[in-house]
Amino acid sequence: MNTNPVNYAQLLETNNLIQCHGDENYWLCVTRTVQESKLFPVPAYMMLSYANCWYRYPALFRKVESFMSAEEIGDRARHIGTKCASLMAYMPDFYLFGREWLLNMGLLKPTDGINDIIYVLDFWKRFQLAYHRNDGHITNREFGHRAQLLPERTVQVFHADLYDCAPGDELHQAAHGFMAAASQYAFLVACESRISLNNHGPYKLDDHTELLVRDFVDLAEGDLPWLDDVAAGVEHNNITVTMAVKDCHFHIVDDWGSFEAEPEFSADKLVGVGLYHSDSLTDGRVPLGMGSRGELTATFQRLTGQVTEATNKLWLRIANWSRDQMLDAGAITYFAVCKDVAHIAGCYDPDDWVKIDERAEHFRPLLNDEYGRDILVALCTAANPTQQVSDYVMMQHANRGARFFTPIPYSVLAGEPYTAGVGEVHAGTTKLPEKKDCYTTSRGKLTIADYNRASRAAPPTNVAPEYRFLGETWLKYHANTPLADALYRREQRTSRRLKDKGAGLSRADILALRGSAGE
Amino acid sequence: MTRLYADTDKFSHGDASAVVEAFHNAIHDRVRTRLAAAGDEWAGFVTGEPPAHVTAEDFRAVEALLLEAGHRFAWSAAISPRERPEAYVPAAGADEASLATFSFEHAEAITATTDPEGREQRGQGDNVARYAEDRTGIARYIRTPAQVLKYVQGGVPADTIAIIDDSGGTLTAPILARFAGVICAGGSTRSHLGILTREYRVPCLMNAKVSGIRHGDTVRIETTARPKTADDYQSGREVTARVWRITK
To answer: Which of A183, A315, A359 sits opposite B196 (nearest CB)?
Structure first.
């Protein structure tokens, strides 16, 4: 009998979060084609990852929160382009997919792991609310598929420092070439998934132009063991490209980091670019090659060369992997989508994040290509027995008697027995070579001990006690105060055009400043 | 007999997949047996070592049941039938020897006799991006990493129109930018391969339904056609570009 009591309010809220995830996940799944690959056994590795998420997330998040709260991690994540940013939205889906799969196999009851489920979703909710603090939502979905995460002072710097470009010019070609090569590399790094790239925004630059922020993450020698050596020449682990796009409205920026635009986005609509890098050691995003137009062009070209070389080396490595190694790499890619919460908290341990828990490992013999495909498709289309409900029900987006994820039964409050959770992390295994103790950071290549120590040592400006709670509503009424000015000057300290301009500028001022710069 | 929680399910109408149903029924049987042996005490059982007392050996035995019954699994990753040929449906078109006689055969491919320009329609697909001219080249099937490796080491012939049934972006990652064109028998214009070919300005048809195109044929893809948009997919609108074999 579980001795950890739960109450009605907790169950109501948790079931709401479960249902909202299910509604959106169904839509995201059915509006995309099934991921397929002749290189990777994608559905099979996804299923292995879901089991790993079920068995490991609760203990790992509790460990992370013994160092730093989810809401402080969310505050910090908002200002850097790492994997736990927008991509954190995936996390509960993977965890709940693991639960749903085990329910269908009869290895769990809906009354199992109740305290864990409540905690994992509460951790996620607090992270998301802090991360989305400026737009006031918990997900992009809740905001009508939009992600306006950044405060005015950050968007102003991005806007002011954009370099204009046009199809055919050298900068446009270099930026476009980098995004093509980096996208391809990102798919390979992430074993065919899009977990290494992410878009957020848009922000309105003028009546015809929008800003989209694109993050490429985990590109260098870092957390992913398969990048050891082959990505040694990639300078930066996380790269952000700011993109000004004309005559094109991004009407969907979803919780999986994808976008839809009307009319469709194409390279000829790209009219401005900027380039940054960041990680848990940087105070926001750091300009990269932004000193001049020529320097930026050369930087894009240099980075393109680096990721192209790494693509070729990594592909050759993967082509020689066994199927079990592919399963491990893919499963870790999905499972570790939220690993950067541990980097931000300064408690990252590769044994936590790049290993398969022995309890998940048991499922490997099931995961041939056909079973993997069929069970994944059934989960993604709400076709499994546990996902079927009364014929009167009209599922969102489908109008049929189904639901994506099984809620927690309220009957546990009326005496039905339930279990609390899966306990501590168990021993992990890997078929891949052990991770080298080498992590590419903004302060060079560090050991994990030094990286964790550095992450814990210096809080960024946006969570410093004097600034953390100075949100956009405070700013609206205090822009003329020394404190607001100091906050903006901190953000502007590495800006080419806004250094020391302070808090008083409007968007019109930025446009005028850009118009007069003549770069 | 010990009953599982889900054995009484008012709303279930079963599994959609025969393989999933067979696997899960066999697993349910094992869980019932082990739970009975554990004295029907669920809380200790579900959190036991291993959870629910079901082991990797049990799962291996579940798969063996289907193989013993003569089932061979469909494959998606080339590595799977290569490592366990006894467990998977044989992989046609995955080696040099079978390429000579292999072709994708889609029941919905629209075909037509040769027109005055020497173009014989062999199917259609969803155009990713519009170009000023249609693209002509030599059809070369690429279905496995071994075939990609051959082109990595020996170079991609300049006129290659790759015929692929993988809408992902990783199989052909080292050579994608060097294709003259791509015909992909899967995915949509929003798939990873569609996204990457657009970025690299490689003409590409996704979701291609083709028939009778052999490795080495001269083919042309109608990349002057209107691209298929997300709205077209959402509204179920058919917007296709043609695939021809050039006979003269």
So the answer is: A183
Pairing of strands A286-287, A270-277: antiparallel
B-chain residues near A194 (CB < 8 A): 192
For A:370-399, CB contacts with B below 8 A are: 370-371, 373-375, 377-378, 381, 383-386, 388-391
Chain A: give the shortest CA distance to residue B112, in Å. Answer: 29
Interchain proximity B170–A194, CB inside 8 Å: no
Of A149, A158, A156, A154, residue with least CA distance to A131: A149
A516: Cβ–Cβ under 8 A, 6 or more apart, which residues? none
Kindly list the residues from chain B whose CB atom is less than 8 angstroms away from the CB atom of residue A107.
Answer: 27, 31, 46, 51-52, 54
Are A314 and A231 in contact, with CB atoms under 8 Å apart?
Answer: yes
Task: Choose the mutation target among A3, A33, A38 for the interface with B, i.e. most B CBs under 10 Å.
Answer: A38
| Residue of B171, B190, B199 with shortest CB distance to A180 | B199
Taking only residues 85 to 144 of chain B, the set having a beta carbon closer than 8 angstroms to any beta carbon of chain A reads: 87-88, 129, 143-144
Output the CA–CA distances (angstroms, integers) from residue A104 to A161, A204, A206, A276, A379, in the order listed: 53, 46, 51, 45, 10
Say whether B77 and A40 touch across the interface (CB within 8 A): yes
DSSP E strands in A228-343: the ranges are: 239-246, 249-253, 259-262, 270-277, 286-287
- pLDDT score of A84: 77
Which of B69, B167, B47 is closest to A1 using CA atoms? B47
Low-confidence ranges of chain B (pLDDT < 70): none
Indicate yes or no: pTM above 0.90: yes
Residues (pLDDT < 50) of chain A are none
Q: Which of A297, A192, A180 is nearest to B202 (CA)?
A: A180
pLDDT at site A518: 65
Q: Is A464 left (phi over 0), alpha (psi -120 to 50) or beta?
A: beta
Tokens of B6: 């889900």
In this prediction, residue B100 carries a pLDDT of: 83
**Is the distance from CB of A287 to CB of A275 less than 8 angstroms?**
yes
pLDDT at residue number A46: 96
- Residue A359, SS3 per DSSP: helix
Smallest CA-to-CA distance from A27 within A388, A399, A391, A406 is with: A399
Tokens of B177: 């930018």
Give the count of Cβ contacts less than 8 A between chain A and B.
238
Return the residue of A nearest to B236 by Cα: A31
Instruction: Fill in the DSSP letter of residue A164.
Output: E
In this structure, the dihedral spanned by the alpha carbons of residues A157, A158, A161 and A164, taken in order and rounded to 10 degrees, is -150
Put simply, whether A249 touches B (Cβ < 8 Å) is: no
Nearest to A362 among B28, B42, B50 (CB): B50
Contacts of A187 in chain B (CB under 8 A): 168-170, 173, 192, 196
Measure CA of the first residue to CA of the last residue in chain A; give whole Å. 70
Q: Supply the pLDDT for residue B234.
A: 73
Contact A328, A428 (CB under 8 A): no
The pLDDT of residue A34: 58
- B189/B127 Cα distance (integer angstroms): 7
Closest CA to B24 of B53, B65, B75, B57: B65
Which residues in A lie closer than 8 A to residue B40 (C-beta atoms)?
none
Domains annotated on chain B, with CATH: 5-71 (no CATH), 103-246 (3.50.30.10)
Closest of B145, B146, B178, B149 to residue B162, by C-alpha: B178
